Amino acid sequence: MLALPIFLDSLVTAWGAILISVTLILLFGEIIPQSVCSRYGLAIGATVAPFVQVLVWICFPVAYPISKLLDFLLGHGHVALFRRAELKTLVNLHGNEAGKGGELTHDETTIIAGALELSEKTAKDAMTPISETFAIDINAKLDRELMSLILEKGHSRVPVYYEHPTNIIGLVLVKNLLTVHPEDEVPVKSVTIRRIPRVQDTLPLYDILNEFQKGHSHMAVVVRQCNKTDQPPSSNSSRSPLPEVKVDIDGEKYPQENALRRKRSLKKWKSFPTSNDSFKSGSRSRKWSKGTDSDILHLNGSPLPQLPEEEEAVGIITMEDVIEELLQEEIFDETDHHYDDS
């Protein structure tokens, strides 16, 4: 390429040699290779890889000492890694909405950007404030009015509180209320109440998602540390986690229903395949083999659990809240009232 003007100078005039050489170099050395490789760069690179490997070995005796000398003088080069903001910008450039020929759709770029931002968001960014949460009292009765209110809200899980709405002690699955008749006015404490985990408001959403994936609960109470300086620190019980309260609700009130539930759970367990192939994933096999009785809140005449004095419940977070932050869009179900901007 560099000797082309000298060669053409003997054939044509000086300005003609410069014009022809510059045009040929620009056309065949810049424009055409970049146009072809921008679309088929990987295929071309894979095709000429053996030839390039041969050139590497041929140039190795000269290139290796020079590279070591440059590393000694200028320092070792670092691999170019992108930061989160740079990755989000790179993803947006590959979206088809950017007009640069990218193949990623709007939904794909939004989800990728949401996954990159999820580690920076905490529970307080996605939770529902406790003042806007629908919860029921454990001492309430499931009469027709309360059952109608639960159906009107349309939630699959309803938090249960004790004494005051900020003291959330568990949750009730609405599907467990299908066999409850409003005329019987069954107390809430007589139905199955599941334990509800507590998470700090500063906990990242990825950690909350990992907790939800364990299968114990898809709802958690968001608590915040309160610095109370007016009261001296008491015994170690104030800093210790809530005690495990053993209360057998089902066996106390409805022994027949409890026995029927055990039979159904046994049938459900037998319906799962028992071959070795079905238990290749260790985490899921451990989850199914573990009993669910530990997730049930048992009441045995013992005092109900309460939040420690240094903690304050500020909201409720669910699996749907975390998924909405990942999708960066609201998820509307059949019972949500969605009003269009128009």
Automatic annotation (TrEMBL):
UniProt key word Cytoplasm: no
Spans traversing the lipid bilayer: 6-28, 40-64
Domain CNNM transmembrane: 1-108
Name this protein carries in UniProt: CNNM transmembrane domain-containing protein
GO biological process assignments: intracellular manganese ion homeostasis; magnesium ion homeostasis
Primary location recorded for the protein, binned into one broad class: membrane
GO cellular component, one term: cytoplasm
Organism per entry: Gossypium raimondii (Peruvian cotton)
CDD domains: CBS_pair_CorC_HlyC_assoc
Record carries keyword Glycoprotein: yes
